[in-house]
Structure formats: structure tokens, C-alpha cells
Amino acid sequence: MNRRSSPSPRGAHTHRAGASGRFRGWLRHHRAICQDSAWRLLRTPVASLVTMLAIAIAMVLPAGLWLTLDSARLLDAELTESATLTAYLAPGIEEGEAARIEEALGAQPGVAHTRLITAAEGMAEFQQALGLENALARLDDNPLPASVVVTPKAPAPEAVRDLAEALDAVPGVDEVRLDLAWIERLRSLAELGRRVTLALAVLFGGGVLLVVGNTIRLAVESRRKEIEVITLIGATHGFVRRPFLYSGAWYGLGGGLLAWVLLTLGGGWLAAPVSALAESYGASFSLPRLGAGGSAILVGCSTLLGWLGAWIAVSRHLAEVKPR
Q: Which of 48, 120, 129, 297 has the most CB atoms less than 10 A away?
């Protein structure tokens, strides 16, 4: 009796090897198309550089405004942290009573810390600020009241207004003054800047799509005969579209790198004048830099826009290329 061997699993192994081989072939094809697209751009360096430079210029302005807004946010944080209220005490209050009122103000919810300025200390600061020591020394009585400088926990305008109303209700407090107009003005300008930056980013992003799309459209027209031939032998639209997508990505990548170079050079060129201007006002300020994360975002967005512009252009014009 002949022994029947069990079915060999060779077919399953063959299937797995075939799938692995197809995947390796797919990777080799993408690598070859990517290299071929790069060489095509290198064979026309002037035209490729002009396209990449147009993309870089379109990316520089939104990125520069984004950096400016980032520095404005840091400045806004520093200014809001320095926002304080001044509670003027009723005239004639003694120092002991003023200290008790300061404790009552410090116990209010939303108060970070307080600092008492007596009437004598207030007069001394006033004389020093105006340089009128001799003139004000002739006054018989000190007209300035004691005051308490209050630093709020939350510097938001709404929270500061509520805190001012609560402090004004404390016995012994004559008036609470706060100046939030500059904070609201700064935040309004920051919100306007954010919207302008977003609008410009969309506008110049559309410009990148148009630049890449027009370049890829010309490439499609120049290779129309080649596309017709490979379409006749069964090439799919995805196969035909692939080299143009890599070309668009290369354009975007080159434009993003050029934009990064322009921003770096521009920041270095403006750093010294900006530092000198800040020092003239007794402050220290330096221009913000993209950093690793910002650079990756800039180059990634540029590459994605290049790829997307190529995809739109090829998808639109590929339907017009009919084999004859």
C-alpha cells in the first residue's frame, strides 16, 4: 500500500514569499522613481532652483510672521505677569491700621501677594521720580495716602476686574485703580496678527500649489507621448502619477530648505540692530528662532504642499491625456 504523504505547505510558503517579493519590488520601484525624479530636477538646475525659490519666498512670510507672533506671546506673558492693582487707603489711616487692611486684602481669593506702601514711602518715591526733593520738602503735610500694591493670581482682564470690585469693598480702601487698556490692546493686536498670519498662510499656501501645479503641468505635457505609450500597455493612473508626485515633493522639500536658510540668514542679519534697540530701552530681547521643531514643521509643510500641488495637477491633466 502506497503511503500518501501529507499535503506539502509549499504553496503557503510560496504565497508568503510572493507577497514579500512584491513588497520588495514595490519598494525598489518607489526608490527608483524617487531617484529618477531627483535626477530630472538636477538636469535642469536653473528651472528647478527658480521653482524652489518661488516656493521658499511663499513660505518665508507666513513663517516670519509666526515667529513674530511667538515673540509677542512671550512678551504678552511677561507683561501680564507684571499686571498689578493699586488699592489706595482712606486718608489719615495709621500704619498699624494700614497693615491690618493689607492682611485683609491679601486674604481675598485671587490675590497672589501684596505690598504695603506707607504715605512716607510713597512721598519718597514721588520725590525721587520727579526730582523735586527740595520743593516737596517744604510741604507741611503729606497729601499722599498709604497704598497696597496687589498682584493677582490670574492676570486675565475679566478676573482682574472682578478682583478690583472685591478689593474696593474692603473697609478702609478708598479707591482701587487698574489699567487694563494696554493689556487688552496688546491682546487685540495679537489676535489680529494671528488672523493675518493665518490668512497669509492660506494665501501663500495656495500660491505654492499653483507654482508646483503649473510646473508639473508642463512636465506632464512634455512627457505626453511617454504617458500615452505606457497607458496603452496597461499602466494605471497611480503608476503614471507616481513620478510627478515625487517631483512635487522634491520641489517642496527644496523650497522648504531654502525658506529655512532665508529665515536663518535674515534672523542673523537683524539680530544685532534689534538687540541694540532693546538695550537702548534698558531691556534684553532677542529674535526668536525656528528651532528643531519649527524647522521640521516648515520643511514638512512645504514638502506636503509640493506633493499636494503635484497630485492636483496630475489628476486634472492625466484625464486629458488619451492614448491615440
A: 48
